[in-house]
Amino acid sequence: MDFFLNRFPAYLDGALITLTVTVLGSALAFVLAMVVGIVGTLRNPAARAVATVYTEAFRGVAALVLLFWFAYAVPQITPYELSPMFAGVLALGLNVGAYGAEVVRAAINAVPRAQTEATIALNMSWGRRMWLVLLPQAWAQMLPTFGNLIIELMKASAIVSLINVADLTDVAGNMRQTTGETVLAYGSAMVMYFAIAQLLIVGMRTLERRANRRLGRAPARGGLRDLLRPPTPGTKVGTAK
């Protein structure tokens, strides 16, 4: 405990860098996922082909390889040199955005066909149909998987330490070299990663509840809080009400 408390400022700085990379990478991944996912639902074969190429290309390449490419290869083949932070955000955003695009495409396609046909019968434009009918319902289905992808991105952000970004993993490595305490150095980093993950989980669960409430759906159950809650009189544990 003394080890962690004495070095808390350094770990806090690393946690802020990790959180920054996570937020920026998630924002880029979200934009790419929404745009590419929606394009993937269009009837235009060329548009779907573009979406498929992006999705398959960036799902099939490791985020670590993308990171090294942007950090070390791009400056050699172009006159531009990316900052380490930007290279990390770009690599993570492109990689996770490809997974998110499939989530968006699948969620939109999962909306009952009858509702799409009803909007066509009402002579709604494609934009109004997507914005007012399809996306609100698909959004509630996307959020649980989006939450998992954000957590995965946060954990994958540890790779930025390999290009000298002072994130949590980099701080833990420096602490291990300085003090020789491997268990305490990386154990403290694990605590900080866990705390960040819980913060992200709370935020995503809040968005899920709001999305389901707008659609008139009951909030999802099965979390730790519900497991610890005593059963309602007259019902059996493990059965639906």
UniProtKB/TrEMBL annotation:
One of its GO terms (cellular component) is ATP-binding cassette (ABC) transporter complex. The chain crosses the membrane at residues 15-39, 51-73, 85-108, 129-151, 183-204. PROSITE patterns: ABC_TM1. Pfam families: BPD_transp_1. Its main location: membrane. Keywords: Amino-acid transport, Cell membrane, Membrane, Transmembrane, Transmembrane helix, Transport. It is found in: Cell membrane. InterPro entries: AA_ABC_transptr_permease_3TM (IPR010065), ArtM/GltK/GlnP/TcyL/YhdX-like (IPR043429), Ectoine_EhuC (IPR014342), MetI-like (IPR000515), MetI-like_sf (IPR035906). It is a multi-pass membrane protein. Residues 15-201 form the ABC transmembrane type-1 domain. PANTHER family: L-CYSTINE TRANSPORT SYSTEM PERMEASE PROTEIN TCYL (PTHR30614:SF0), MEMBRANE COMPONENT OF AMINO ACID ABC TRANSPORTER (PTHR30614). This is Amino acid ABC transporter permease. It comes from Streptomonospora alba. The lineage of its organism: Bacteria, Bacillati, Actinomycetota, Actinomycetes, Streptosporangiales.
